[in-house]
Specification:
The protein has ten helices and eleven strands. The protein is α/β, with parallel strands linked by helices and 295 residues long.
């Protein structure tokens, strides 16, 4: 049974991106710039933003953080985004979610220039993904990272049955559309399961490649998996664990101990898909920089 090590792959990718940034800097005198806006004091968001800034620095990119209080008006946030859209030194704009309740997330997403939408959330980027025009769009970093893992581990995907459990706009929907594309690490027959699907195990047991993104600890159990399947666990769930100093530990959407006994390959949590998300965000930012500079 193969453990798909996202931590190792993300470190390899970060080193590759660092070399590319240094090369482009030598030619243009410029480096990619990523600006992250965070509204409010959500602790999980702040930790995630710190990791992004740290990775930017490692690669040699410019990382800018704009911190706005929770009472910030939607109008002020939109004005800030407009200024960043027009700033040639900014190649990626990311507004950290969740946002305060008085701010409409869709309105904010639509305000970001699609060519700087390195999170891949803008409808224009999602539409281009559905059309299969990946050379002109940004793919959401988490699905993009899963594709990268499948590619680097040379997982056979052509014509395989991929079952995606979960239909979020961040993972489930773009993941399913990505696996449909005529790509080396995709080109699958795809089924999507969700909260209204009757008898989910019926579908998951048919999967050659099973991708779990439901946000429910241990949702996928061994009896739901076909022996020899490749299992990708996107879940990040916190459960009580008195043995930990924090009082809790992170687990995925897959019962790792049970499923790993029958899967041919599996991603662990933590250390699987998670590290790839930030690495692929950096890859998108570099791609934006290349497009803006005709590289």
């Amino acid at each position: 049974m193969l453990i798909i090590d996202g931590k190792k792959v993300s470190l390899d990718l970060i080193n590759e991106l660092k070399a590319s940034v240094e090369s482009f800097k030598a030619v243009t005198g410029k480096v990619p710039g990523l600006t992250v806006i965070i509204v409010g004091q959500d602790q999980a968001s702040q930790a995630y933003v710190r990791n992004k800034a740290k990775t930017c620095k490692e690669i040699g990119m410019i990382s800018t953080l704009i911190e706005m209080p929770a009472e910030t008006t939607q109008e002020l946030l939109l004005h800030t985004i407009h200024e960043l859209n027009n700033d040639p030194a900014v190649h990626g704009i990311l507004v950290q979610q969740p946002l305060p309740e008085h701010i409409d997330e869709l309105t904010v997403t639509l305000a970001i220039n699609p060519s700087k939408d390195v999170d891949g959330f803008h409808p224009e980027n999602l539409g281009l993904l559905v059309m299969g025009d990946l050379d002109k769009c940004f793919v959401s970093p988490t699905p993009y990272g899963i594709l990268e893992l499948l590619d680097r581990y040379k997982i056979e995907t052509q014509g395989k049955h991929c079952v995606v459990v979960g239909r979020s706009n961040i993972v489930g929907k773009p993941m399913a559309n990505l696996m449909l594309q005529k790509l080396d690490a995709a080109n699958c027959t795809v089924t999507i399961c969700h909260s209204a699907t009757k008898n989910i195990p019926f579908f998951t047991r048919q999967a050659d490649i099973l991708i779990a993104a439901v946000g429910h600890a241990g949702f996928i159990t061994a009896d739901m998996v076909k022996p020899g399947a490749v299992v990708i666990d996107v879940g990040i769930n916190y459960i009580d664990d008195p043995a930990k100093k924090s009082g809790c530990r992170i687990v995925g959407d897959v019962d790792f101990d049970g499923v790993s006994a029958i899967a041919s390959a599996i991603t662990p949590v933590p250390g699987g898909v998670g590290p790839m998300t930030i690495a692929m965000l950096m890859k998108n930012t570099l791609l934006s920089f290349q497009r803006f500079n005709g590289l």
